[in-house]
Amino acid sequence: MRNASVVTKFILLGIPHTEGLETTLFVLFLSFYIFTLMGNLLILLAIISSTRLHTPMYFFLCQLSVCDIFFPSVSSPKMLFYLSGNSRVISYAGCVSQLFFYHFLGCTECFLYTVMAYDRFVAICYPLRYTVIMSHRVCAILAMGTSFFGCIQATFLTTLTFQLPYCGANEVDYFFCDIPVMLKLACADTSALEMVGFISVGLMPLSCFLLILTSYSCIVCSILQIRSPEGRRRAFSTCSAHLTAILLFFMPVVLIYLQPTPNPWLNATVQVLNNLVTPMLNPLIYSLRNKEVKYSLRKVLQQVAFFPEK
């Protein structure tokens, strides 16, 4: 029988099968985290400081950079704290907060990628009406909508998880509080809730992915109708960065939440890549193939480091 005492704190056991690698992981993850923060802050500064980049596409890219700053900050500080030899204990409220903000920011990014695909669809398929359709008011509504629906989804998933009684074991076999590992600790039947959570977590990304697929199907058809090879190249170049970021975002979601038989070590590895590596790569993806962003970044770096203008 399980202990009847109510759990008030949890112990994060960390990434499975990494005992003795704490120092190596600390240095590696700290490097990823610093590069993630620096890269996304530079993208923000580049877009804000350049009036040429004050367009809907870069407005949404700004919002993505903000999400990519906060998303790894949900789990990384605590993970780095215990990897450096400190306590692995996290309070009940802290665990609730981790799960809520992880799914809030993750869902917001998912909706944001869908909005960014729609923005590219309008820009390429209806270029003459682009400024009318993607007005400042529409952009503001879409941006607030991504956060609003992300909050609703995260609230639902968090309530679903923590309305269960936790009165037994308190060791979380993971590096942060997430739905699958928390359900294992609940002292109640979770089969129905697991199914509801599986449908909820699976349905939202699938719906977004189908909308993105629809947008890009229309975009490809429009690009193929462009007669100029240079025009086709520029159109594909504009969309390639977004498509790369979409694949990096959705592949971990499928591997973590929609696999029939979960593998703890694989899940943790993919989750770390999703939490730290993808947000770190996004600034590179969006800047390396974009001359305007690269030019603005160069100006920002010159101002920050006092480099002389060439």
From TrEMBL:
Predominant place of localization: membrane
A molecular-function term among this protein's GO annotations: G protein-coupled receptor activity
Q: Name one GO cellular component term.
A: plasma membrane
Pfam families (UniProt xref): 7tm_4
What's the name of the protein? Answer: Olfactory receptor 149-like
What subcellular locations does the record give?
Answer: Cell membrane
Please state every residue range assigned to the domain named G-protein coupled receptors family 1 profile. Answer: 39-286
Transmembrane ranges, per UniProt, are: 30-48, 100-118, 138-156, 203-224, 236-258
| Protein topology in the membrane | Multi-pass membrane protein
Record bears the keyword ATP-binding: no
What's its job?
Putative odorant or sperm cell receptor.
CDD domains recorded for this chain? 7tmA_OR10D-like (cd15228)
Report the superkingdom from the record.
Answer: Eukaryota
Per its UniProt record, what InterPro entries does this chain match?
A: GPCR_Rhodpsn, GPCR_Rhodpsn_7TM, Olfact_rcpt
Annotated keywords: Cell membrane, G-protein coupled receptor, Membrane, Olfaction, Receptor, Sensory transduction, Transducer, Transmembrane, Transmembrane helix
